[in-house]
Amino acid sequence: MKKDINSLSPEAREIIKAQITRRSLLVGAGAIGGAAFLASCSSDSEPSGAGSPEDVGGTVRWANWTAYLDAKKVDGKRTYPSLNKFIESTGIDVDYLVKYNDNDEFYALVQENLKAGKDIGYDIVTPTDWMAARWIRLGYAQELDAANIPNKNNILDTLANVSFDPGRNYSLTWQSGFAGFCWNKDVIKNDVVSIEQIFAPANKGRVVVLSEMRDTMGIILQYQGVDISQPFTEDQFMNGIDYFKKLIADGFIRQVKGNDYLEDMANGDAVAAIGWSGDMFSENLDGKNYGFAIPESGGTLWSDNMLVASTSANKANSEALMNHYYDPAIAAEVAAWVNYICPVKGAQAEMEKIDPELANSPFIFPDAETLSKVKVFRGLDAEEEFNFAAAFQEAIGA
Amino acid sequence: MALAHAEVGNKAHAPKKRAKRIAYFLLAPGLTWLLIFFAFPLINLAETSTKTPAPTFETGEFVQTFRFSNFVDAFVNNQEQFFRSFLYALIATLFALAIAYPLAYAIAFRSGPWKNLMLILVVAPFFTSFLLRTLAWKQILGAEGPVVSALQFLGILPPEATITATAFSVILGLTYNFLPFMTLPIYASLDRIDYRLLEASGDLYANGVTTFRKVTLPLSAPGVVAGTLLTFIPASGDYINAQLLGSPENYMIGNVINSRFFRVVDYPTAAALSFILMATILVLVVIYIRRLGTDELV
Questions:
Q1: Is A111 on the interface with B (CB under 8 A)?
Q2: What are the chain A neighbours of B251 within 8 Å (beta carbons)?
Q3: Per residue, what are the HEC states of chain A?
């Protein structure tokens, strides 16, 4: 059956596929309508990541985070210069979609379709390490064809062999960054480098923290002297949760948010935040006056990864796009705007040509000293992931 | 329906059976609809609520262990949010009633040629999404928004104080978002009142207050009951207002259910919480209707 379909013209194939979808929709009306809410809850269905659709090519739909690609306003419209270069040189169209606000939030949106093997509406997704691990583990990411990504060899040695994807067969780092303290320099004149300073009485109720548990808790745990990259105990984690709870109960923390913490800083509701390094630099390019610092007691280091979703029928074009961004010159162009840690070897030399000052920025090309101030949150086993997430949400009161 | 049955009852046995079959046949679409969209999800929800995480703790994997204490845990751990939800919903309902009744009264009796325009204005907010309207309030009430600046200028609000991230803004959001649900039923019942009854009341020497108390209010009671239910029920399950306009200290039970479903990926607890919420609302509504009588509730 499958072979028959594939021997037809693309148009005919589309028609047949559409019919099948419509028919299964009618047959399964009960399941879709009635149980859509809970369809994902039944545990008996196995993840169907294995059967990825045939690559038919077309527009690459890329879901990414806020302020994560060099942008420029042309005639009031937002364009992405480095992406336009790709579109011009390859003729492959790209839909760049800013759809990530929070790892859990995004996963919740697409999880049902991933499980059912239906198109999620994106070809490339950009989850953070721990969430990328989940995608790969559940078979929701397609294996990449190294031959299509010759620039893959440019990945930094430290990122080439991560625990969740040894040899980078399913993922490529998009950017890495630090979580630390952000503040509005118009309101807070002094640098904010310690927990005491960010949660000072003057900022009471005006501080927003990240809903990304590993970043917010990572900073609190390090403040309590816990090395988050080493196997710490559940008790140690719960001590951190108690501290976090107290901050909320005492009214210091205004909200716990995803990437939209930037809105609270922009409209003045928040004067400081536990946030992400590059955001502050790109916001400042937009005329803001924000500061960023890695906490004295330690910040976190994380990476976001490009993955091709198991439901994508557009793998080769997606790989071409990944290859494009692993070209050192292009990577430098992106880094000069996003100010996150560039994962591409040779980009620093290219950056010299764009802006020598940025080539020395510890936030793009971190030196050993900067790296000594941050830690990667250790991998959690499934049970810990469940319990820690529950404890974190309970502390938030949700 | 009752009439049809009575007629059928007088006829011979065979046609009666056939008529019954026809009745079921005609009911079939409705019953199927109920089965698919109400019974089936509910059974699914019930089934999920007693599961526990699979031994591997893999994300989204649960096994049926008939652990009914899920319900106890879910309630005990989240009493605060349950209580808060009903409190906020109650206050918002009272505020909405206080605003909607005079508004509906004005539209029904005093608007003259402006009646349709005013009705459109009541419904107009529905043309934009719930989310956008709430986000708009976030901007309006934000620290650099017009309300805060004005209040601070007048010295009513201390310089460092904000309005968002408080219970006040959450209740304001709830009141605003559900106001049309209160206004329209009240308007509908007021509009049906024969104005001559009010005039007659005046002819019998009743003053305005007495007329309102003895004539207008009782006649509009069905609208008030319907409006309060339509406001209270969705407001107590809402989470958008608390999320956008509140702080963690203002989270309602909807926020907990949302985070259990999507963040912790703990479906059993989320399902148990949904059940408790549904049951509590049902009990409250039954008590409320019992006390007010259902006869006029149409």
A1: yes
A2: 396-398
A3: CHHHHHCCCHHHHHHHHHHHHHHHHHHCHHHHHHHCCCHHHCCCCCCCCCCCCCCCCCCEEEEEECCCCCCEEECCEEECHHHHHHHHHHCCCEEEEEEECCHHHHHHHHHHHHHHCCCCCCCEECCEHHHHHHHHHCCCECCCCHHHCHHHHHECHHHHEECCEECCCCEEEEEEEEEEEEEECCCCCCCCCCHHHHCCHHHCCCEEEECCHHHHHHHHHHHCCCCCCCCCCHHHHHHHHHHHHHHHHCCCEEEEECCCHHHHHHCCCCCEEEEEHHHHHHHHHCCCCEEEECCCCCEEEEEEEEEEECCCCCHHHHHHHHHHHCCHHHHHHHHHHHCCECCECCHHHHHHHHCHHHHCCCCCCCCHHHHCCEECCCCCCHHHHHHHHHHHHHHHCC
A-B contacts (CB, under 8 Å): 126
> Where in the sequence of chain B do the CATH 1.10.3720.10 domains occur?
72-292
What ipTM was assigned to the predicted interfaces of this complex?
0.83
A177-302+374-396: CATH class? alpha beta
Q: A52-176+303-363 with A177-302+374-396: one CATH topology? A: yes
Q: Which CATH superfamily is domain A52-176+303-363 in?
A: Periplasmic binding protein-like II (3.40.190.10)
Portion 49-78 of B in contact with A at CB < 8 A:
51, 53-54, 56-63, 77
Domain spans of chain A, in order of start: 52-176+303-363, 177-302+374-396
CATH class of B72-292: mainly alpha
Tell me: the pLDDT tens digits for A46-90?
A: 444 457 888 998 999 999 999 999 998 888 888 999 999 999 999
